[in-house]
Amino acid sequence: MSIQLRHGDDLRRISRELRRMDSPEIKKRFRKELRSAARPLVPKVRTAIRAIPSGRSYSADGLRGQLSKATRLEIKTAGKEAGVALRVDGRKMPAHMKSLPAMVEGTKRWRHPVYGNRENWVNQGREPYFYKTVRVAGPLSRQAVSRVLTGITRDIS
Question: What is the pTM of this model?
C-alpha cells in the first residue's frame, strides 16, 4: 500500500531536463529536497502504527514493529514512474507476512483459522492506520513537493 505525493508529467519533464543538463549538483539537490519535503509523513505513519491497540498479534516487537520497519519513503527521479511515494512495503515484511500491511489497513480481507483449526475460521478486525494519517498530513507534504518542483523548474529555465 502506498500513496503518491506527486507524479506524472511534471516530474518526468524535470527529470528529463536534469539528464540533459548533466549537472550532478542540481540532481543531488533535487532528490534531497524531494526527500526532505515528504519526510515528515514517515514518522507520522509509524506513530499511527504504534498506536494500533495492542493485542497478542499487535505487540510492539511483533506485527506493529514489523509494519513500522517496513514504512519507507521512495524517491524516483527517472523513468515513467518518476515520483515520491510513501509505502508500507509488504516486500520488507517476513515471508509469511507480506500481505499484512493491506490486511491490517482493511483494504484486503484478513481471515485465519481459530487456533489452527481449519474447520473454524474467523475474520480479523481491521485497524486503519495509513490512509487516515496520510489524508490529514498529506496536503502539507504535497505543497512542499510542489514548491520543490517549482524551484527546480525555475533553476533549470
Answer: 0.74
